[in-house]
Amino acid sequence: MEQSESKTIISAQSKTNKTVSEAEEKKIVAQMSTVGIAGNVLLSAFKLIAGLAGSSGAMISDAVHSLSDVLATFIAMIGVRISKRGADADHQYGHEKFECISSEILAGILFVTGLGIGSVGVEKIIGGHYEDLTVPGMLPLIAAIVSIVSKEAMFWYTRACAKKIQSSAFMADAWHHRSDAFSSIGSLIGIVGARAGFPVLDPIASVVICLFILKVAVDIFRDAIKKLTDSACDDAYTEKVRDYIKGQEGVCGIDLLRTRIFGEKVYVDVEISVDADLSLREAHAIAERVHDGLEHNFSNIKHVMVHVNPYEKAA
Length: 315
What we know:
The chain has nine helices and three strands, in the order H-H-H-H-H-H-H-H-E-E-H-E.
């Protein structure tokens, strides 16, 4: 399962303006949170009832996974709200990294959920006596199909909104929905197999669900760590920045270019060469043009530090 989408939030943006206003962003976050929480509560309740009534361990595991999505959406919502706060005396560079922290918490919830689901399935498989396992009824089968359709729809909706507001926490939440859709596919296969005369397939499905969840958890955690440790932007993004700077009037060359990811934002440090015969005022004007142009044309660049070096013309 690919988890590069949250990285793309940083690497693929070089638009002229912020994609949404602050008011629209708050509205989108509120809508996503409402859809995620309400949808998961209803779906979890339906799957839990179906699993208990239809004697399906895989569906009960799936219900627990969906229930964890409710907590995940709450954490994503809180993380995004904190990250949008401006700089203050204690956080003079802003609060963007709080969103990465919420992504790490989401990954932890997913990991623990996956281990719990997997341990129950492994215990049933190792225990043997498969003939004593209860064959799931029709209700869990219906619940699995409903869950696949619902969670896939929630994945695409949350993914689109996360891209629009440039949020890795909600992108992680989107993949949480997708992992739930995959787990429901595992439930469906296990339930169908158990009803076809292979009851052991129901706990095996729980183990498969566990593996999907653990994979997503690790991917989300790794991406959050990257953004918390001031990693550089990818080569494609850095080249876009470099090409823009080179194209500015008065820039003779780039002596140094560094980028670092700060939550969902980017910091840029650049040393440019300008004509050594220019006055300080003229050199400063070039540096200001580079600074303002980068922050205006790359919506996720939060701050640019420009240092000017003298460029000596060849004799």
